Target: ABC transporter ATP-binding protein
Amino acid sequence: MSGSLLKVAGVTRRFGGLTALDGLDLDVGAGEILGLIGPNGSGKTTFFNVITGVFPPNAGSIHFGGHDITGFAPPAIYRAGIARTFQRSRLCLELSVLDNILIGNQLRLTRGFIFNLLRRRRFADQYRAFRAEAVDLLATFDPPLARRIEEPVAGMPMILRRRIEICRALISRPRLLLLDEPSAGMTHDETRHLMDDILEVRRRLGGELAIIIIEHEMGVIERITDRCAVLNFGQKICEGSYRAVAADPLVQQAYLGVE
Ligand SMILES: Nc1ncnc2c1ncn2[C@@H]1O[C@H](COP(=O)(O)OP(=O)(O)OP(=O)(O)O)[C@@H](O)[C@H]1O
Model:
């Protein structure tokens, strides 16, 4: 497909004798929300790890924004415009909400230690601007949370931690956001709110942000995705609208356990 933001072709990743991804082809367009679904162990998280350079693929290619990023290390992939969240929360609990979000802003905090030491006013101006941006982003998700920006993350409930993690990913202004099971550890209502927030932030960013979401809650997938791809044993067994994939007999057999 020409004009894809992300184009994955024939990607294979093995761990010893296990083939976690097996010749996977997948395209994602700018502004598209793709649901990545499949049974446990089907290769979804491995796909994110391969895209973000945690594990290089054993075969195949990955193009992003027209550039070949196959085998790039995670910092280079992040600089190219791909940000992610993790299945298990990965925040620095003793740090404040603001510090956790600013960790995600390495891309735009270009100044080094010497600059920050010598040009303190410039550094302070930059810090204030990023702080305001973090407050604004947080306020889109949760205005009361934006007022708690100096508080440590420790002790905050899962929904707030998820919001902070998504803000940390978004502060670098990525073109592609990878969400690995954002509903994990949350109630249905909390998940619904979080999805509303994500859609609102995306709308505010002009709708150009593409998202790939791994999610076991089918209600979430049905509601927010434009298209779904279904994995089984590392292979893509089906692709299309949620309705189409949910009705596919192969998917029912593999994913829903229906014979
Ligand atoms: N670092 C690793 N070393 C060895 N095997 C791995 C590694 N990462 C993943 N695997 C294996 O690869 C397969 C795919 O795992 P993966 O975590 O990608 O599946 P998943 O679809 O995300 O599953 P879940 O829905 O349970 O998160 C599994 O058999 C898993 O045990």
